[in-house]
Write a structure and sequence with these properties.
11-stranded mixed beta sheet; alpha/beta; homodimer; globular; Isopropylmalate Dehydrogenase
């Protein structure tokens, strides 16, 4: 990263709040000298946690007080209307005002999406924000979108996800015409529900590189560069994957603990098993980008620990240094034919 | 199995047709002396594949000719109306007429569901068939329903899936009040789309042991005995699991092949790795039960090989010998308050 990037951290969000977000941010700043951070939340809580690090990082580390906290299960209305001084909202406002280039939060997804949309506004031509996540595949990675921002999508939304995913993949991976798959219950065009049938038509008629329908197992095969789905389905797919990966890791551990000989084999194979564990560790993949906004917001898993939250910060810093929003805005405008009225 | 069960096998269905279904059935008959089979399909194709086994099994093995084959991608209308003599339909008719107690097919899911419904009819109080699958969990198994029969479900359908799943779990696992979870994007009741919100209310008001919402990762944790979901979501969850399990197996193999030392460790650990592989082998879990019908139909994965198809046959034989349909019908009637008019 050549240019200095400032990350606004919603320190109060997530299952563990400041006890995770603050140490993760401090560790991240130590390892990434070109990144600055603003910790957003209750000053009286954050200051003692920062401690002497305040002196060490100097101007690279700021604390911005926000009085309120959005609860993990809080209804949207109360989070939006009742908490104008929440750490989540104030962190996003840092991006809106230009004091930060990206905000990171492990808080309530619904509130994060709604507040981001309210504060930052949408890019022209895009109706709703979508959560985009890079999943590992056998040979690389795939961008899955939407993974939970929208639980009742229309076919038009799925088309827009295809546009956003295409732009993201072409910006981040420098690929010319990344392929888009529509997640469905069969690869034939006749398959699916009413929304996917309509979305197939729209994607087919668009100028995207539409591959056609893909099935659940095609995701990890990496059949396409991007896979588009309703946020409900995407969220389930992501969480099912987490659960299965964890269960398989448990099974492997159990088998290597079944008797003294197996345990010995486990000890001898430890370097191999550690490499494997690292490759499938879901914490490494933490951090999803909210696309479609006029600013970058990164969503961390609510239950992220320090290591996982650092990964979300890394994703945020890299997205911000890539000037993702400007580049996405330009390309979306080129694809959808919308052009933003710039104030004179 | 104490009583002899006859399985009708749609031999022409699936990606590999008779080249898989016939050898799998012969192997299964060899290992299960209390099971008989009727092979349904083109006699001129099946006879040579059966060969001398015809003599060995005698009356335990029959061939029932059916002229037509439902294609894997064939539209429903043509499969239903144009192919009254398809191997799929004739196999199901064996159950309807009582010549077999269960039918097994690896064919087109949509056609199998529609034809089963048309031929066998629904149990009173149930609107649509649903696909139920037993998935492994960290400590046992969980019944997931629906995994692809219905891609546009209402809240009432989800309630019915809860009833069918409850009855299945109580019959097969002898559990008194199995718990039902509704697959959702969050555990709080406010989460989800319109259908899941309504379904939460219906399940809460029912006399089922409703646990509340569960998330994707709760499936493999085995948080509940049954998990209920729309067939679109369930199908994606199942196939994502297959894809991820396969990718993780590939990663493990790759790590144990990274250099001579790792390869040596892999060879030494082979008994452990084989036990692990066996535990996570998706082929072992092949065979889903279509619930809600006045007869039992088991759906095999379309791409099943011989070993996997044998597992589906085993599931079918065991469901039939448990008198699943009668017991489910009685319990569904008790829960829904519907009672079938029996012909005088």
């Amino acid at each position: 990263m050549s240019v200095t990037v400032t990350v606004a951290v919603d320190c109060m969000g997530g299952d563990y709040g400041p006890s995770v977000t603050v140490p993760a941010t401090l560790a991240f700043l130590r390892d990434h000298p070109a990144v600055n951070a603003v910790l957003v939340g209750r000053e009286e809580v954050l200051k003692p946690l920062v401690g002497e690090a305040a002196g060490r990082f100097g101007a690279r580390l700021g604390i911005h007080h926000a009085e309120q906290v959005v609860g993990m299960d809080e209804p949207l209305v109360s989070a939006m209307r009742g908490k104008k001084d929440s750490s989540m909202r104030v962190a996003i406002e840092q991006v809106e005002s230009g004091r930060a280039q990206v905000a990171v939060s492990a808080g309530n997804t619904g509130a994060l999406v709604a507040i981001s949309r309210f504060v930052l506004k949408m890019l022209p031509g895009i109706d709703r924000p979508a959560i985009c996540f890079a999943l590992p595949t056998t040979g690389g990675h795939i961008y899955a979108i939407d993974l939970g921002a929208n639980v009742d999508c229309t076919a038009e939304h799925l088309l827009q996800f295809g546009i956003m995913g295409t732009v993201l993949a072409s910006v981040l991976d420098h690929s010319e015409r990344p392929s888009v798959g529509l997640l469905n219950v069969g690869t034939e065009e006749i398959k699916g529900n009413e929304v996917t049938k309509k979305a197939t038509e729209l994607l087919r008629a668009s100028n995207l590189n539409f591959h056609g329908n893909v099935e659940g197992d095609d995701i990890y095969k990496g059949v396409t560069d991007i896979v588009v789905c309703d946020g409900f389905v995407g969220n389930v797919a992501l969480k099912v994957s987490e659960g299965l990966a964890r269960m398989m890791a448990t099974f492997l551990r159990e088998e290597f603990n079944r008797g003294p000989l197996s345990r010995l084999m486990g000890a001898l194979s430890w370097p191999v098993l550690r490499r494997f564990k690292r490759r499938v560790d879901p914490r490494r993949y933490n951090g999803a980008v909210l696309l479609g906004l006029r600013g970058i917001v990164v969503k961390s898993h609510g239950s992220a620990g320090v290591f996982a939250f650092e990964q979300a910060l890394a994703r945020a810093a890299s997205a911000a240094s890539d000037r993702l929003v400007e580049r996405i805005g330009d390309r979306v405008a080129a694809i959808t034919g919308t052009h933003e009225e710039r104030p004179a």
